């Protein structure tokens, strides 16, 4: 029967772990009670990340609005919390934990994604012999409060993805399971894939993170957004939706097929070179998609300005500086 080990309920007969979500508070809401509810959910493997991201984002907003620990939430935040409650269910997840196979090739795949709210990575074990794939580890982080461009957030997702797959690989080694397993990182950001494929001259922030990703044995490939399970985290979903979400638990349908049937991506010329193609950046929020075509990261970041007047003033100063350095005198 089920046994509690390392904080998790494990059924040693069926080799499943049980993760249960309890009800969330609905009265006398404060930053302390909400944080306490979040911390009561023990999910060390990150398997329930898509359901928890909305609570984490809400808590981040309370910090941003400088709430005291025991200050009762104002009406606007109360309404937002009630919307979270409407989508919440106190249910139990039963997740298979078997990772050892007697024969057949195994592979590790990590899918990464980012939105304006969060970025995430989901690691899958694929067994070629049985044609099975299942989620074994996930990692997510909230996007910085001060704001960051979507390409940089996608790069941060790729970075935690490379670290996550290395972490899983390292901890499977003692079981003599993962010595020669292929490792693949999947991203739907063409900009990030360009950065990784063509390192250097992208600025210190980008170059340092690209160097760390390239300092692994991971092969980077393109995945369409609709087939990216990490997109489930960056957008969030309800517990009921997650319970029956095959993309999250098993990965895309083609993952167990022959690599010749995997998505293809034709690498464009490096941004900034002759005949550079326009790259599409998808800025993904919880309910909307905004597409912008750019050649490189913009100098002016609109999200950092509190008003149109301030941004217009800043653009004017930049143009004035450019004209000054162009002047022959």
TrEMBL record:
It holds the Pfam family Peptidase_A17. InterPro entries: DNA/RNA_pol_sf (IPR043502), Retrotrans_Pao (IPR008042). This is Pao retrotransposon peptidase. The lineage of its organism: Eukaryota, Metazoa, Ecdysozoa, Nematoda, Chromadorea.
